[in-house]
C-alpha cells in the first residue's frame, strides 16, 4: 500500500489518473502543496466568471485561467491533464447536477470550446495549521472537510451570483490566533477565517448536516472556525445554469506542483498580523483585527482613562473594554444610544454637558459607517434633545439628524416590545445598546448623583432596556462612565462600592457587556468614534467584516470617516448648543475643564487633539 503523504504531486496525479479508488478525496495528502478547485465553462461565460472571481477573491482566489481547449494547467503543474487529474468530477446540464464521473475524456469534443478555472483551496493551508500546532480535526478523523452554504451573498458579476460556501474546522480556543495567523499568510488558499463562532450568524442551522463533505466532530473546548470555500464556484455554476459545465467533486481537488505560499506568523508585520477577540458568548462570536490596530486602540483607551480630578477612577478600569465594544459595534447594523444625567436636580433643565457631545460623536461615526442609529432619552427632555440634534446638524457636528425618541414603561413587556419587532426576541430592532453618562439604577432601585442625592423622579426606566437586552441573544450592551453610577457600570460595581466616594449607595446595579471607564464620559464617546475609525481602516478587520467579499476600502470612504472624527471645534459648537438650551456644566466644571460652558481649559482641548493624533498615526 502506497503512502500518499510521502508522494510528490506528480505521482499523486498519476495514481488519480489510473482511477484508483485509494484516493477518495485529497484532504490530508500532498502536504504543503497548493490544491485547486476546478470550474470548466463555455468560453462565452469565461470573462463573466473571471470577473466574479475577482469580486469574490476570498472564496474564489484565481490561480490560473486556461486558454480555450487547454488541458494542461499552465504554470501550476507539469504534464497535467485536467480531464483525468481530479479523483472525481461533477457534470452539470442547465445548472443541474446530472452525474459524477472519474474522467472527462469522453467530453473532449465539448471541452474544445471550454475554459478551465483553477481556484485556490483550503487543503493548501492544512499543513500550515499543523505547523502552527493547530489540530486539523477532519484529517485526524480521516474525513473530508465539512462545507456549508451560507446566507452571505457573493458580489454579482454578469450572469454569476450565489451564496458563499464555507468550510468549517473546529479549533481549540487557545489556538484561534495561531489558526488565523497561519492561514492569513496564505491568501491563495482562501486566507484567514471569515467567521469564528456561532454558525447561525452565517445562516447555518446544523453543523452536523453539511451541504458538502463530511460531518466533522468537535472536541471539548473547540470553537467552529469558518473559511471561505471554492465550492462557491459550484454554486455559481448552478445559479448561472449553463448548458454544460464541469467542476471537481467537492473534496476531490486538482493537486498542483506549487508549494503553498507560507509565511511564518512570527514574521508578519503588526499591520497584517491578525488577533482574535471574543465579543459575545450569546451567540458565540469572535472578531479579528490586526495587532497594530489592537495596540493603537489600547493606547487610546489608556489616554481617556486619565483621571483629571484624582478621584481614583483607575480602580474601575478593565483593559480592552473599548476594543471589544468597538469590534462589536463594527459588526452591528442598528445601534441605540442613550445619555442624560440630571445631576442639576434643582434646575430646569437638570441635565449636564457631559454625555450629549460624546453621544453625538459616536452617532456621527456610526452613521458614516452605514449603521442605523437612534438616540433614546427621558420623555421630559425629548423636545429639547430633538432641538439639540437639529442644531448639531446645522452646525456641522453631525451630517444627518439621528432620530431622538423616548421610552416609557407601560408593563412588564414594554422593554421587549421596544427592543424587538412584535416583542419577538428573535427579531431585535437593535443589535447594540450604548449608554454614555446615563443615570444608572442603584441596588435599592433609586438613581443617585455622585453626592448621593436621589434623582429618581427625573429619570425614565431606560435601564429596563439593558436588563431586557441581557436576556436576548444577539443584543450587546456597552456602558461609558466616569464615576460608577452610570448605566452599564454595574459590571464594575464591586470596585465602585470599594473605591468611589459614596460607592456603596450610588453604584449602578445594571451591568453592560462592556464597561468603558474614562476620566470624563465625553472622552469615552470620542474614544469609541476614534477606535471605530481605526478598526475600519484596518485591512485585516475590513476583510473579516466583509467575509473577504467585494472591493477594498476606498479613499473616499476614508475621507468620509475622517471628517466624522471628534475635533475641538465640534466640541465647542456642542457646548454652545447645550448652553443655548440651558444645559449646565456638571462635575467637569469643578475639575477646571470648562469655563462658562463655552471655553475649554487647555487640558480638555489637549485630550481631544491627542486622541486625533493617536487615531491618525
TrEMBL record:
Catalytic function, reaction form: D-glutamate = 5-oxo-D-proline + H2O
Record-linked InterPro entries: D-Glu_cyclase, GLUCM_C, Putative_hydro-lyase
Sequence ranges assigned to domain D-glutamate cyclase-like C-terminal in this UniProt record: 300-612
Pfam families, A to Z: D-Glu_cyclase, GLUCM-like_C
Gene3D superfamilies referenced in this protein's UniProt entry, alphabetically: PSTPO5379-like, PSTPO5379-like domain, TON_0340
Enzyme class: lyase
Keyword annotations: Lyase, Mitochondrion, Transit peptide
Coiled-coil portions: none
EC number, as in UniProt: 4.2.1.48
SUPFAM superfamilies linked to this entry: PSTPO5379-like
Any GO CC annotation of this UniProt entry: mitochondrial matrix
GO molecular function: D-glutamate cyclase activity
Compartments reported by the entry: Mitochondrion matrix
Swiss-Prot/TrEMBL GO biological process terms: glutamate metabolic process
Keyword presence, Cell wall biogenesis/degradation: no
Function: D-glutamate cyclase that converts D-glutamate to 5-oxo-D-proline.
Annotated family: Belongs to the D-glutamate cyclase family.
This protein's name: D-glutamate cyclase, mitochondrial
Organism: Carassius auratus (Goldfish)
Lineage: Eukaryota, Metazoa, Chordata, Craniata, Vertebrata
Amino acid at each position: 500500500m502506497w503512502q500518499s503523504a510521502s508522494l510528490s504531486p506528480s505521482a499523486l496525479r498519476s495514481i488519480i489518473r489510473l482511477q484508483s479508488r485509494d484516493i477518495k478525496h485529497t484532504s490530508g495528502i500532498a502536504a504543503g502543496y497548493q490544491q485547486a478547485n476546478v470550474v470548466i465553462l463555455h468560453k462565452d461565460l469565461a470573462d463573466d466568471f473571471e470577473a466574479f472571481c475577482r469580486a469574490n477573491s476570498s472564496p474564489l482566489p484565481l490561480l490560473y485561467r486556461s486558454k480555450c481547449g487547454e488541458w494542461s494547467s499552465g504554470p501550476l503543474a507539469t504534464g497535467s491533464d485536467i480531464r483525468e487529474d481530479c479523483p472525481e468530477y461533477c457534470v452539470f446540464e442547465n445548472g443541474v447536477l446530472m452525474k459524477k464521473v472519474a474522467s472527462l475524456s469522453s467530453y473532449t469534443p465539448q471541452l474544445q470550446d471550454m475554459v478551465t478555472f483553477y481556484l485556490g483551496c483550503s487543503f493548501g493551508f492544512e499543513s500550515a495549521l499543523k505547523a502552527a500546532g493547530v489540530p486539523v480535526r477532519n484529517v485526524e478523523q480521516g474525513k473530508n472537510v465539512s462545507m456549508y452554504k451560507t446566507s452571505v451573498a457573493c458580489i454579482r458579476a454578469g450572469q454569476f451570483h450565489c451564496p458563499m460556501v464555507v468550510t468549517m474546522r473546529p479549533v481549540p480556543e487557545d489556538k484561534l490566533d495561531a489558526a488565523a495567523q497561519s492561514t492569513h499568510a496564505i491568501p491563495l488558499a482562501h486566507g484567514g477565517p471569515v467567521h469564528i463562532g456561532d454558525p447561525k450568524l452565517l445562516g447555518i442551522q446544523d453543523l452536523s448536516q453539511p451541504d458538502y463533505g463530511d460531518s466533522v466532530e468537535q472536541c471539548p473546548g473547540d470553537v467552529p472556525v469558518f473559511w471561505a470555500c471554492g465550492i462557491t464556484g459550484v454554486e455559481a455554476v448552478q445559479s448561472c445554469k449553463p448548458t454544460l459545465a464541469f467542476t471537481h467533486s467537492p473534496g476531490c481537488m486538482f493537486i498542483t506542483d506549487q508549494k503553498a505560499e507560507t509565511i511564518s506568523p512570527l514574521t508578519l508585520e503588526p499591520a497584517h498580523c491578525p488577533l482574535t477577540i471574543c465579543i459575545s458568548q450569546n451567540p458565540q462570536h469572535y472578531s479579528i483585527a490586526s495587532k497594530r490596530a489592537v495596540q493603537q486602540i489600547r493606547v487610546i483607551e489608556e489616554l481617556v482613562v486619565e483621571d483629571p480630578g484624582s478621584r481614583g477612577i483607575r480602580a474601575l478600569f478593565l483593559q480592552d473594554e473599548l476594543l471589544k465594544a468597538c469590534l462589536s459595534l463594527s459588526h452591528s447594523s442598528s445601534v441605540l444610544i442613550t445619555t442624560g444625567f440630571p445631576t442639576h436636580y434643582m434646575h430646569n433643565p437638570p441635565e449636564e454637558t457631559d454625555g450629549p457631545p460624546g453621544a453625538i460623536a459616536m452617532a456621527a461615526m456610526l452613521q458614516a459607517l452605514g449603521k442605523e442609529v437612534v438616540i433614546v432619552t427621558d420623555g421630559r427632555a425629548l423636545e429639547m434633545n430633538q432641538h439639540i440634534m437639529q442644531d448639531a446638524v446645522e452646525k456641522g457636528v453631525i451630517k444627518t439628524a439621528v432620530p431622538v425618541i423616548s421610552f416609557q414603561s407601560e408593563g412588564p413587556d414594554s422593554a421587549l416590545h421596544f427592543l424587538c419587532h412584535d416583542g419577538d426576541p428573535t427579531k431585535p430592532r437593535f443589535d447594540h445598546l450604548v449608554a454614555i453618562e446615563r443615570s444608572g439604577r442603584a441596588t435599592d432601585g433609586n438613581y443617585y448623583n455622585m453626592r448621593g442625592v436621589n434623582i429618581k423622579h427625573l429619570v425614565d426606566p431606560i435601564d429596563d432596556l439593558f436588563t431586557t437586552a441581557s436576556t436576548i441573544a444577539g443584543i450587546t450592551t456597552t456602558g461609558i462612565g466616569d464615576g460608577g453610577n452610570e448605566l452599564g457600570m454595574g459590571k464594575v460595581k464591586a470596585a465602585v462600592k470599594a473605591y468611589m466616594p459614596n460607592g456603596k449607595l450610588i453604584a449602578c446595579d445594571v451591568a453592560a457587556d462592556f464597561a468603558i471607564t474614562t476620566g470624563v464620559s465625553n472622552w469615552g464617546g470620542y474614544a469609541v468614534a476614534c477606535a471605530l475609525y481605526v478598526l475600519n481602516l484596518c485591512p485585516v478587520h475590513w476583510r473579516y467584516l466583509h467575509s473577504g467579499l467585494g472591493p477594498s476600502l476606498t479613499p473616499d470612504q476614508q475621507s468620509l470617516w475622517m471628517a466624522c472624527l471628534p475635533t475641538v471645534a465640534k466640541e465647542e459648537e456642542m457646548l454652545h448648543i447645550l448652553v443655548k438650551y440651558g444645559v449646565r456644566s456638571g462635575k467637569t466644571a469643578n475639575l477646571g475643564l470648562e469655563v462658562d460652558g463655552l471655553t475649554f481649559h487647555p487640558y480638555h482641548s489637549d485630550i481631544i487633539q491627542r486622541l486625533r493624533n493617536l487615531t491618525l498615526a
